Amino acid sequence: MTEEAYEAIARLGTAPLWRYFGNLFNAEPRSRAVPYLWRYPELRPYLLHFADVLSLEEAERRVLMLVNPGLPDPPATTTTLYAGIQVILPGETAQAHRHSAGAFRFIIEGRGAYTTVNGERVHMHPGDLLLTPGWHWHDHAHEGDGPMLWLDGLDFPLVNALEAGFFELFGERTQKAEVPDDISSRQFIHGRLTPAWDPRPGPNSPIGNYPWTETARAFDAIAEDATGSDADGVVLEYTNPWNGGPVMPTIGCRIARLRPGFRGVVRRQTPSTIYHVVRGSGASRVDDQLLEWSEKDVFAVPGWARYQHVNSSTSQDAVLFSYTDAPAITALGLYREEVA
Amino acid sequence: MTEEAYEAIARLGTAPLWRYFGNLFNAEPRSRAVPYLWRYPELRPYLLHFADVLSLEEAERRVLMLVNPGLPDPPATTTTLYAGIQVILPGETAQAHRHSAGAFRFIIEGRGAYTTVNGERVHMHPGDLLLTPGWHWHDHAHEGDGPMLWLDGLDFPLVNALEAGFFELFGERTQKAEVPDDISSRQFIHGRLTPAWDPRPGPNSPIGNYPWTETARAFDAIAEDATGSDADGVVLEYTNPWNGGPVMPTIGCRIARLRPGFRGVVRRQTPSTIYHVVRGSGASRVDDQLLEWSEKDVFAVPGWARYQHVNSSTSQDAVLFSYTDAPAITALGLYREEVA
Amino acid sequence: MTEEAYEAIARLGTAPLWRYFGNLFNAEPRSRAVPYLWRYPELRPYLLHFADVLSLEEAERRVLMLVNPGLPDPPATTTTLYAGIQVILPGETAQAHRHSAGAFRFIIEGRGAYTTVNGERVHMHPGDLLLTPGWHWHDHAHEGDGPMLWLDGLDFPLVNALEAGFFELFGERTQKAEVPDDISSRQFIHGRLTPAWDPRPGPNSPIGNYPWTETARAFDAIAEDATGSDADGVVLEYTNPWNGGPVMPTIGCRIARLRPGFRGVVRRQTPSTIYHVVRGSGASRVDDQLLEWSEKDVFAVPGWARYQHVNSSTSQDAVLFSYTDAPAITALGLYREEVA
Amino acid sequence: MTEEAYEAIARLGTAPLWRYFGNLFNAEPRSRAVPYLWRYPELRPYLLHFADVLSLEEAERRVLMLVNPGLPDPPATTTTLYAGIQVILPGETAQAHRHSAGAFRFIIEGRGAYTTVNGERVHMHPGDLLLTPGWHWHDHAHEGDGPMLWLDGLDFPLVNALEAGFFELFGERTQKAEVPDDISSRQFIHGRLTPAWDPRPGPNSPIGNYPWTETARAFDAIAEDATGSDADGVVLEYTNPWNGGPVMPTIGCRIARLRPGFRGVVRRQTPSTIYHVVRGSGASRVDDQLLEWSEKDVFAVPGWARYQHVNSSTSQDAVLFSYTDAPAITALGLYREEVA
């Protein structure tokens, strides 16, 4: 009767765990994502091409998604995170909307654009990190010259995997400015000083922009005096002023300086990470792949993949911006790391 | 050139967001999971059949997975959670192992079995909730008469979706008892008293067993004096003594009494929930499905599905055990609910 | 000019730190409080006498304050805590009021009285711990036979030292019952189960009564199977269900069983502690004092005083209820302990 | 017998609560501290005089304590806080020690001195806020020209009231530099960026110096664009990077800009506050006292005293540094405020 029993239990909406056990419980994680590098110089011409032929009215957002070859459908850059390169032209606006997914932009090139986040206009400059946390209204506008390009980071692969995503269009194309421009940054970015009137602690950072000028000052101030991390160099975390933690509950953002000749130790961790090369060139071995990166490139390190960063130059710094799902993985009790 | 451009960008590992936008950002969640009911009387004969024909040496665990028809591969009961019915016979043992996934058992029938969790033997009785949090060694043994059946709840769909799962076999078939039997329960379950020597606060409850005897006393003590929830009746959360929160960082467990004739309001929430009927019979409308349940059945309510519980009896209580991913969804800032 | 300078600076409202330094900064704390024991059999007749001659209309509360000889003015039992013995007679009521100071009662003898706390009537039985956290309305009434006596514990020495105390009389002599009697205890005390409707997490426990019946069950369940503390025996902390911490932000309450023949190690800690002997007899050496205690006695252990508990009996348990300012001292970063 | 009873209970170490009730429970706090102003120009000559006649070998620290006329013994500035003005001359060193009390210095005038805190040399400039949290080794040295004067703030009145204070001399007169000078400030002060290697979250800020240069940049950046507090102006809290909270668990530090002509609303709160005038002049009505302050003055606002700040100038800003015991009062559940 056993074969019949297998058929019968299938009809009852069940399956025998003992035939699936090995697939469901692996000795260690094997990410479907693969180590991968996207070269900015290769992508940029196509971004400009589509900027030319596709209006922002047609494309809600004009973005090339960086699709991990291991994660084509639904498209994602790592298991939980997404990266895209967005371009906007002078005079354009991108429709205001909001979504459960948390997002940020890290500005690559251009000048004169701004994002309006819940009524605050936040201006962009290369190297700035702009936040649009989950369910915050945001639209983009470009009042400068030349194309504006940035890296978009979102957690929608995670939010969609959890089937917890909402989306809503704003009633008008763009929001009106309701507070002074860039006020959140100006109020929160200096000297670890926090406005003490009307405190509104929350899981998301209230800071619209972590400007590159301050990040540069941080590296200048630290100079050669930090020990830093053996694996990640002089690595700084962007923090939420309300609790000192990561900028959003699902995404942590970091900026790292690899000194000339830096050769990191081999490390791996359960969270996945996406890197953007702010400056310099080097190589990262990720499991069995060697990713040789240069300025403005983007690359993905899957969770539990071994990585080792090297700054190829013996005279120039390399600077890597990165973001990870470590806050989510940690909150769920799943963080683990290993240093070789 | 545009078509060529689309081909070229695909070769570069990118895709145009504007062609995917609607699929990636939905107005609200649409779970692939469907509302579904598993009737215990239909499953029980097959469990006993496989207990008869399949040894525990062959099957690491002898469990019928309750596979949601919308989530066949990988198999899951809701998007993030798993339910199975496990059977073990007198004299059997189930191999000691541990995994990143958090787990619990809710005992359905039988007497005389125990689980050893990190060296503590925890004995099972119908209605008991036993915890084996992530990365805790656990094995099962049955020293009583007759088959022992229980509901297994795990978060491996979540852990596997996050690609953060580890698994390890214990060096021997079973663990030795290293502390007095059932000590954790005896130390933590009474009068909200917590042992004050050697405190070890952590994200998981240290309690091996939340015994039914105490749960029954809780309902007796509350009697008709609680207002309860309009949607969920007199619903109590099993808590972690160290922080008052849910028993594990990814899974919350609850027990609810629906008074005779109870008819809940319609509610929905982003977390998904799996119910097990401890006592009584009734019906739950879940979106457009009517799930008519009786004692020992299991049913699934997907995230953001509207549900309404009814106790069909006008003289008998219905008691529903349930578990949900609400702790995870909340920690990630994605909790949302709506009451009609 | 120096002597003139000293006079001049005094007139300007200043003083030379260098003439005070040694008094302000000591090598270690030297409490003004002394180790002290109050024998219940000596106090009881006077409590009954005053119950006889003094009405509750005359005395807002009829309490003998246990005044530490080292802390006469303002009167206190330890530096931050107060203990008193209160008596109330059948038919009496004590005026409803509230104060910033947190309070509890630990019931010593009698039956039939209750406290109404923010509209909930909480009934008293020997061994029960009843809470009236800061700024909660409370009045007492006695509907039984014979006198009712209990230990009052408050933090007003701390609150008054911080000059942060408020007090208010209720508009009427007693509050009306607004919820079912003893509902908080019935909802929160069993099986670590917490009502999941209308959660109201806060720094104070919502439990009106931690009944002795449950405390006794805890000790019975643990039996001889706990290791316990070398200094304090099998010591259990009453906890706040919302966060697993102490019952109030300023006062922690504990109950300890010293096994027959228990002889603790010598320990000291910055918090101060007041003990009440629930059962048995023994002795505690506190610095150079030997406090020989019997059932119902109260004794004080000042902060940073060395103490060592001994259960003199080789056949009977001793049970000590205690309370301390450890939650406050710890929150302020001032906790320190030392075991000899 | 009643009079005898009163005598007898006194001999037993007790007192009748009913004869003390009104003194122990007041309708609202009445601080023994009084509103008071210390004028810097009056104090400065005496500080220089004592610098002249008293060596730092004789005086562990050369400080004029600002003693509140209501709190002469033990001397304190408010109920829980202390303020002093310290002077150190070129070439001097002040002995390394540590104490449980938390401390900071706010630099008033001079240049060329530094404090060594747990092995880090922290250099001082006017307007800088330097921390020496509880139990951190610290010594001072002056390598510049001219006298160096600063405001010392400590919580020893609180720590001593709680009888929880320890003190220890360092084995040598001064500590050696064990890390690069000013490294903590350089690593933590810019752009809300936190070093991500070797995180050591704790209740005290790891920042040795919150430099005036950054504070000035904050005010410049905010300019006229902040709403600010009706009572306290554009008031910013110095924060602990690890948790976003106050710099120490007992002391919160703030800096406020009162715009020209600012006239605050009347407010009171249970914490007490000490102000130091960094710039400008104005007046604060505190209960029935009018404190007319100018640059470098210090004044005390007792807990629950009504205060109203006015910037007398219609063209110049006033800038007030302040510190309070609000973190302690809040942690103990005793915070309360009232705005007229």
UniProtKB/TrEMBL annotation, chains A, B, C, D:
Residues 85-152 form the Cupin type-2 domain. The keyword Oxidoreductase applies. Pfam families: Cupin_2 (PF07883). InterPro entries: Cupin_2, GDO-like, RmlC-like_jellyroll, RmlC_Cupin_sf. The keyword Acetylation does not apply. Keywords: Dioxygenase, Oxidoreductase. CDD domains: cupin_GDO-like_C (cd06992), cupin_GDO-like_N (cd02216). This is Cupin domain-containing protein. It comes from Plantactinospora sonchi.
